[in-house]
Amino acid sequence: MAGQSTPPPPDAETARLMREAAFLRAQGRMAEAIDATRRLLARRPDLPDYWFDLGWMLRRAGDAGGALDAYGEALARGAGGPEEIHLNRAAILSDDLRRDAEAEAELQAALRIDPDYVPARLNLGNLHEERGGRDAAAACYQAILPGAAAGADPHRNLRFEALARLAQLHPPQSLTDPVLDRLKTAAAAPGLDETTRANLGFALGRALDALGDYDGAFAAFTAANRAASAGTPPYDAANAGRAAQAIMAAFAAAGPAGAPAAGPQPVFICGMFRSGSTLLERVLAAHPKVTAGGELDFMPRLATGGLAPFPQAMAGVSQQRLAAFAADYRAHLARLFPDAPPDGLITDKRPDNILLAGLIKRLFPAAKIVITVRHPLDNCLSAWFQHINPAVARYAGDLAATGHYYGLTRKLSAHWRALWPDDVTEFDYDAFVREPEPRLRALLAFLGLDWDPACLRFHERGGTVKTASYWQVRRPLYRDASGRWRHYAQHLAPLRAALEQAGAAIPD
């Protein structure tokens, strides 16, 4: 960067710290690597690349604010590739800190440095989608479609991602629409990474489903899930079953009661992915006393970090330590949502928190937990129709595995409701879209909220939605997602068998 002087060569101690930091990071010993990098930078703060490394590590350790500051130091000290640093800062601001206007400013800064920087343009399009800006998002994707660059293109996969997203913003209008052929050709293109190939396949499947070609859609989703699962271990049903049993055994009793702490109260929405949790959060957030928290990762990080190995560690954890974790969570909410009404609720809508409901009730004995449910065939198909990260939901790429996991969620739900019948409830998506007002009135009463008709006009609200449902929940309530499984009935024998074996009832 112009105006920046070249740092002097390292002395012996600086060189030693450089080697130590690099070794620890390569070993995956992240906390130690962060500490070594901080000691290095305390000695030599004029090393911009190490500020970049510190930002990268801090974000992965869950310290979003620290990561943002470290990347800021890297920029101020003239690190190379400033457009990438702005991109990384935008991701932190948007995904971790919910400061979307600042995230957009970072992406625009990256594009001022390099107007052809494809990652920033793609992320800007995605940010526009999350905020409801359909035309602005489409313009971003259109600008970086495949064919926009000649010769070798380091961003080829991202250009194909833009094609997949544009096809969902402006779906094909008929089975002869050339967009379908373009998606099919792109999904079969050699040299794509499997994640991109999967996203093209999912876009094709959704387009064919909307046009009524259900056999074609099923074939497209099959190929998409095969690509999405490439290179990842298959779902281990036996291990998943043992893990669920261990969780229920670790939380076999309700535990001590407790009064809520001062300030906004957390409400946890969980269940199966694609069971209506985003819709429910959107509906609740139309209430003046509810703030939508979205999919927060605090609880999963706690289970895999401070309380690892979970749930075994629960046997020896002290009440004082649990109180400290609860205080950390409340402080996290306060940083993210400083304007939340002090007498209101903040939703934490993380579907896989159904595995952690027992932990939640240990941390927050007065907390309310809402488990969203949906017809098992519709729910499992919808999860299979969506590209869900295998690291989060390994089952989702296989219908039989999805059926098995659905059965586990039903057992977990029954267990939690038996332990805390006054604080844990189910919310049925299909019943809600049939009878919105009575179902919602009952839920609001459960949460201690007065009735507000604005909740049924949720689609009129602005705001950001950071899940795959960001366009569906901007529509008024609709019923066409209920019973969708009937279009695919001839393909669902493995799913039905898995659900029946898992003990999950299948309504007509």
Strand line-up across the major sheet: 2-3-1-4-5
- Low-pLDDT runs of 5+ residues are none
Amount of beta strand: 5-15%
Structural classification:
mainly alpha
Share of residues in helices: 40-55%
The largest pleated sheet is described as: 5 strands, parallel
The number of distinct helices, counting runs of at least 4 residues, comes to 22
Report the principal-axis shape.
globular
The CATH topology of one domain is given as Rossmann fold
SSE run: HHHHHHHHHHHHHEHEHHEHEHHEHHH
Number-wise, the strands total 5
Distance between the termini: 66 Å
Q: What is the residue-mean pLDDT, rounded to a whole number?
A: 93
Radius of gyration: 24 Å
Full CATH superfamily name of one domain: P-loop containing nucleotide triphosphate hydrolases
CATH architectural grouping of one domain: 3-Layer(aba) Sandwich
Can you identify the CATH class of one domain? Alpha Beta
Tags for this model:
508 residues, mainly alpha, Rossmann fold
What does it look like?
With 508 residues, the protein is mainly α. Among the domains are: 145-231, no CATH class; 239-501, P-loop containing nucleotide triphosphate hydrolases (Rossmann fold). It is 54% helix and 5% strand. It is built from 22 helices and five strands. The protein has helices at residues 12-26, 30-43, 48-60, 64-76, 82-96, 100-113, 118-130, 134-143, 156-169, 178-187, 194-210, 214-228, 237-250, 277-285, 298-304, 319-336, 357-363, 376-384, 399-419, 429-434, 436-446, 493-501, and strands at residues 265-271, 290-292, 345-349, 368-373, 424-428. Strands 2-3-1-4-5 form a five-stranded parallel sheet, sandwiched between helices. Helix 1 packs antiparallel against helix 2 (30-43) and helix 5 (82-96) packs parallel to helix 7 (118-130). The radius of gyration is 24 Å and the shape is globular. The mean pLDDT is 93.
